[in-house]
Amino acid sequence: MLLSLEPRGQESRAMLWFSPLLAAILTLISGSLLFVALGLDPLLTLHTLLIAPVSDLYGLSELMVKALPILLCALGLAVAYQARIWNIGAEGQLLIGALAGSAVAVNVIDVDSRWVLALILLIGIAAGAAWAGLTAWLRTHFNANEILTSIMLNYIALNLLLYFVHGPLKDPAGMNFPESAMFGDASRLPLLTEDGRVHAGVYFALLALVAVWVLLQRSFVGFQIKVLGLDKRAAGFVGFREKRLVWLALLISGGLAGLAGVCEVAGPIGQLVPQVSPGYGYAAITVAFLGRLNPIGILFSSLLMALLYLGGESAQMTLNLPQAITQLFQGMMLFFLLACDVLILYRPRLKLRWARRQMAAVPGAV
Amino acid sequence: MDIDLLSNILFATVRCGTPLLLVALGELVCEKSGVLNLGQEGMMLFGAVIGFIVALSTGSLWLGVLLAVLAGMLLSSLFALVALVFNANQVATGLALTIFGVGLSSFVGAAWVGKPLLGFEPLVVPYLSDIPLIGRMLFAQDILVYLSFALFALVAWTLLKSRVGLVIQAVGENPNAASAMGLPVLFVRTLAVLFGGAMAGLAGAYLSLAYTPMWAENMSAGRGWIALALVVFASWRVWRLLLGAYLFGFASILYLVAQGVGLAIPSNLLAMLPYVATIVVLVLLSRNALRTRLYAPVSLGQPWQSGH
To answer: Of B42, B41, B38, nearest to B91 (Cα)?
Structure first.
């Protein structure tokens, strides 16, 4: 091999933030190669995918609508991942939040009071937190691996949602479609603009962003969470209570995912449908890592991910490409990020002897 | 319950447990060498879609199987590069592999959804398949199920009786000591990861070419994850893995059993059963933390570099 990896001895802070950028660039390059292989014009395709969707005001507002659930889920995941609690269950927590919120909403369609909306949102948050609480309980009481339990709970949540949407929550006047009734006006999140679908959920997202930032960067609990993540034994020695932190991190994580879910049904969708989430909870995993588990970083990476979702839709409409291109780019980006992260701790070096021989071969170079 | 129904249940249990057994065998070898690869679901799906496309466009089921195995290995080599060479966190890399594999398979397979394919037919062994109760279970399956029996025997023999098995375990238990003895730790681990990829690809091919001969997005439905739980369930012991795979196979066909005895439970609720069973089993098995620690390979999931 011409390249060797040389330990830096310490983390490179520049690389910490350069690596996500590099990963995004590498994803673009591999994406272009893929398009060429498919016989498409790479520049045109990238334009359709990444620029056309946000080239007008409506596009930008759609970007915010899509970024919202991803941002909320990823913020929650960041709290859990800082503690090295591998919550993969944001998707299920989101679905349960949406399901519980809808269960309330379809029963209060005729109530004309804004308190109804508050109730629906709170129920959604509580349900998401409770679903994540299951994972916390299984881990703290039974020592069960949270990766596997939270994944299993995703599949269970999806089946629960399908059961309810095909059964008890199905709109009796809905021509037998698997959908709930449309929520009452009082149960919907108010829109912020005349045209476009941006809704009041944006305020919750900003609030959550600030809250998670304060929690992680400025609070003692956040410090405990980080210590737990860095060294479990050290956290035990100084008397931080692991079980409590696991509960806390997962409840926050699940609450935010539940909020994301209930905002989707009370916001842009307006009813419970089988496809509440096109994988937002899974996308949030990539987003959390890409944003370096830092709330500000996550804000940017969630916008990028939302752009990929919009781009996937527009590529399907105009170029007839499968919409799965969103997931494909997601996976590539996370992979490249992990690979590029090697640069944080290591410096790539050309093998010196080889380099010198090359130099010597060029007259006048040495 | 009459004997025909019971015989059918056993038959379906083995059929349904086969993909789990295949993936779990690969992951077991991988984990025995100290590497935790959470990418099984992604590799399985990629194997399934590649196997299906190749089989449908060339007309050769076996070519499909072969390419599916290679597809699984291809993805696992990406994992090996990032997790073993670049020393990235194995949990995160495995997750990335699953996300990537799910996306890649949906992208590649978008045009192939719902196309019909004549998959592997059952290969009924005369006379033996007439044995009451277990005859159909063991001797009326398709050839990939028989292959899974053979692969089980191979892996069991390798891990329990052969020198290769000792090397794999040495590398997984104590890579430093193994390295000091002159064993090529990274090489062994890479091979173990590739084997895991091959088995996941094969399991995917089983799904799309034999179990339900077709391609649908996410058709593995979490089997890759259940297989990971199976390895924990088996306490990293190969015989219990066999038992576990069929137990989970049984949990997945319970809805057929429920229909058979005339219970009317909504299908979505019954579809939860394998996942609920996985959680229950994890709880029962992990409750004793000491036990898990005793059986798990000591260096499982930890990055390792020579010269440390």
So the answer is: B38
